[in-house]
Amino acid sequence: MRRTLVALALVAAAGVVGALAYASYSTEQEFVRLVASGDEAAEAGRVFESLEAYSGALALVPDAVVAYLKRGRVYQLQGESEAALRDLRRAAELDPSSTRPLEWLGDISLDLDRVDRAAEYFQRYVALDDRNARVLYKLAVARYRAGAAADALAALDQALALDPALGDARFLRGLCLRDLGQPQEARKALETVVTASPGASGPREALAEVYTSLGEHQHAIDTLEAVSALDPSRAEPLIVVGLAYASSGRDTQAIQTLTRAIERFPDSPRSYAALGHVWLGIAERRSDPAALSKAVEALTEAAQHATNTSAALSDLGRALTLSGDVAGAERALRQAVTRLPVSNDAFLRLAAVTERQRRLPEARDALLQYAALVGDREPMTSIATHIAELSLQMGEPLLAARWIDRAIDEGGPTPALLELKARAGVP
Q1: What is the model's pTM?
Q2: Residue 12: per-residue pLDDT
Q3: What's the distance, CA 67 to chain centroid?
């Protein structure tokens, strides 16, 4: 009897094991079928069906890396970034040694302009595999867009050592050298890129900027003329050429070029803004009423467009101020300081207009906003002194003293600043 019971127990156990094995086998087969179905649907462009199939596979096997990867990729290609990030992060958690989800996470983060996060993902990829030139280039792009040009340059050198023919990496390398204040090295790098890709306008525009920084204005103009010839369907290359002529003191050529841009692209507010900027410069240098009138005309036309810029509105405010239209100038400048990206000059010009009307608190506020915007990137001695003077006139000696100290820290204890500090009555 005992032997019979043992035999029955063994048969029952075998039955359970067999049932579990069959269930596992069935689950595996269904998982494989669902993933294959998802692949077929994705290939045919049936997005909803593919997502349903991959989701069904994950319901069967919740820790399946491949299903998270595939579903995340479909979400990514459909522009559903947050859903894609969720799936790809899960895939990376489940398999920390896999590089594919890290690359795609970096790609999506770059598209979303989350550059620090993108750099982190690409760096994690490189820690696993530092022989992929394409990913090293992506790491450099993320670092460059995050403002870390030196770190980007290091990644680019690694990428180019692996793949010397990586043209985009050579272009970015030139931009890094330019931003790091190495114009001669940037020039060599960008000239090499232009020679290798004569039809690309981006490297030529960057090279022209480097030529300008080196004082080689004719080289810059010749390079920009080539850009204009390569891309005759846009006003921007002609505008850049015109402004380059103006920067080199060739006002006649600048006006002719920008007038041509307006004739060819009458709906381009940038063309009118650039022409107005050049006329305004002439009017200020020569005290020329006719040039001032032409500046107001062109800048007013630019201001009629919804896409006008803070810089154009700031120029219009300056031109109207010189014309004696203070109210119009203030309206333009108040628009200018709310339009992103804000032109730094707009705050200075608004301060001048409001101070002219003896509205000292508004003038000081504009200068304070300018100081906050510029930070330590520009000399601040004169601005700090002016803020202190306005504060004294408003009966605020403590604030005046703080800005006097800033002016002294930057420019030294001049007699004028020491006298101003004495007037503030603060030791």
Answers
A1: 0.69
A2: 37
A3: 34
